[in-house]
Each structure stands twice: as C-alpha cells, then as structure tokens.
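Running co-folding for N,N-dimethyl-L-histidine.
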Amino acid sequence: MSAATHDRELREIIDGLQQPEKMISPKYFYDERGSQLFDQITTLPEYYQTVTELDIMRENIAEITALIGPRASLIEYGSGSSLKTRVLLEHLVDLAVYVPVDISEDHLLASAQQIRSELPDLEVLPVVADFTKQFALPDPTVMPLHNIVYFPGSTIGNFTDDDARALLRVIHHEAGASGAMLIGVDLQKDPAIIERAYNDSSGITAKFNLNMLRHLNREYGSDFDLKSWSHNARYNETEGRIEMRLISSAMQTVNIGQEAVVFNKGEAILTEYSHKYSLSGFATMAEQAGFEVAQVWTDPGKLFSVQYCIRS
Ligand code: SAH
Ligand code: AVI
C-alpha cells in the first residue's frame, strides 16, 4: 500500500471514530486473516447466503451464460476466493479475460494464481483496489465484445442506500453501452434466520468482527485491546438490515495516529450494515442507477437472488 493510501485510510478511520455514532468501514475486515475468516463463515450452517447463491448459479447457469454471450470480459467486484465465479468460468463461452478486483491483496493474488492453475488458457488479471475509489482496469490481450460486471455475495448490502446507488452508477459506467451487471442480492425474510446467520454458534462471525481491530492495530498502529470488545449483531426491522457492532466492555482510551479516542463502557463501534432487499426495493435502487433488472433467479425458499441488470 502506498504511503498516500495509508494516510488517507488512517484519516478515514479516525474520522469515523469521531462521528457521534462511532463507525469503521467494513472494508477493514479484510486483511488475510479476515478473508480466511470470511471463507469460514461461508461454510457455516447458519450462513445460508453462500450455499444458496451457489445453488442458484448452478441451477440457472445455462440461462445465465446465454444472456452473457461469448467473448465477454468478466470483471468481479470483491472477488474474495472466487468461489461462485468458478461456475461462470467453467461455463462461459470463449471468455476474453477475468478481472477479479479486491482490497485484500495477498488473498486476491493467491486466488488468481489458483484459478490460473485450474484454467491455464484463461487470462486472469487481478486488480488490488478499493472499488469505492477510482481504479484503472487492465488491458486484456484479447479484445472483449462487452463487459460483464459480476458482483456476487450481496456485498452491495454492506453499503448505505446512497453509497450503494453511487457504486451501482460506477458499475453502470464500467459495464458500458453493451455490457451488463450480474449481482447477488440477499432478500428480506424471517428476521430470526437473518440474525442466526450473523450470530453463529461456532463464534466465527464474532472472530471476524473482532479481527478488524487486530487489523487496525497492525496496519495503522492503533492500540485496541481485543479483550475488552465483544461482537454484537442484530436485525433492524425498520431499516431492513443487520447492524454489526463491537461493544466496549469498559471505559477506555484508544490511541490511533495522533488521536486518542475515549469509549464509555457499553459504547459501540458500528462495523457493518448488511441490507436485505425486497425484489421491488432492489429494482428501484438499480433503476435509480440507470439499470433495468432483466432477469431474476431465486431459490425455492426465496432466501437469495441473482439478478441480471442491463442499461435502461
Ligand atoms: N464475492 C465473494 C466474497 C464476498 S466477501 C463471495 O461472494 O463470497 C466481500 C469481499 O469484498 C471480500 O473479499 C473483501 O476483501 C472485498 N471488499 C470489501 N470491500 C471492498 C472494497 N471497498 N474494495 C475492494 N474490495 C472490497
Ligand atoms: C461480504 N458481506 C456481504 C457479508 C455479509 O453477510 O454482509 C460479510 C459478513 N459479515 C458478517 N458475516 C458475513
């Protein structure tokens, strides 16, 4: 990471901790350990999202590949271990290039290397970037016919509605006139099912949440004492979202950069929103970003959806 990026991120973290409700962006979950913990979350029985999205992809892959067509450039936002992408990579016809984009550098590069070894004929051009900031896309060897932006996992739900719309507008631009977006969108359902997914019985989500503080201590020199924080995740029915927080078990001062941040006993840091959408709610948001939802696939229980969006 460049010194300028490091300084900008440190400023961003401090700004968040100086808000009336203290908060840190969920992008800081993802150092190497955070990415590994996320991979563990995807295998938990309570975390219905990954297995359901994978099933939807497998079930509908013929229709999905027909819509995408040949010689596409597949650009994936927040690719992680590219688990669901493999279904696409194995079925898309004459794919021009695969461009996984992720902030978690080591994890991204290792995943890209793994895909190259599995599919030696495919050009894989990973981009280490924060996709909420401007970043350059690499030039592929084979000229693609169009761009498909793949955004699985319902990572869109980790943004506020305003930020999600802004990101969808960037994706709209990235996809270009002949392109499209294939996106995973988690759906509203019984709140008990949702809350269980973020309060798993093995405590992996708690470790994932707390790991953010370990990441900040290592990368940005803060001195959070991990023992005095605990995981909290609850569903806000009014807003239709999980809100994940870290709760301070004591009054304490945390030093970060040149700042000292005071926490009261019981005070929280908001670390993540995870919005759950209605189909109509997501369609409206996509429309506001210039997209029309052309096709929606869901599972029989209507837990999750995969949506193909074109320019409206
Ligand atoms: N797409 C995968 C992983 C989802 S986890 C799946 O569906 O299972 C979210 C991923 O997005 C992580 O790999 C994380 O490192 C990445 N990520 C989160 N915020 C990001 C940002 N602002 N810029 C780039 N990558 C980001
Ligand atoms: C990446 N993102 C969509 C996950 C989610 O469900 O919001 C991150 C996560 N947080 C807790 N568990 C998983």
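Result summary
The longest helix spans residues 204-220.
Residues 27, 30, 35, 38, 42, 50, 78-80, 83-84, 102-104, 130-132, 152-153, 155 surround S-adenosyl-L-homocysteine (ligand 1) (CB under 6 Å).
Job closed.
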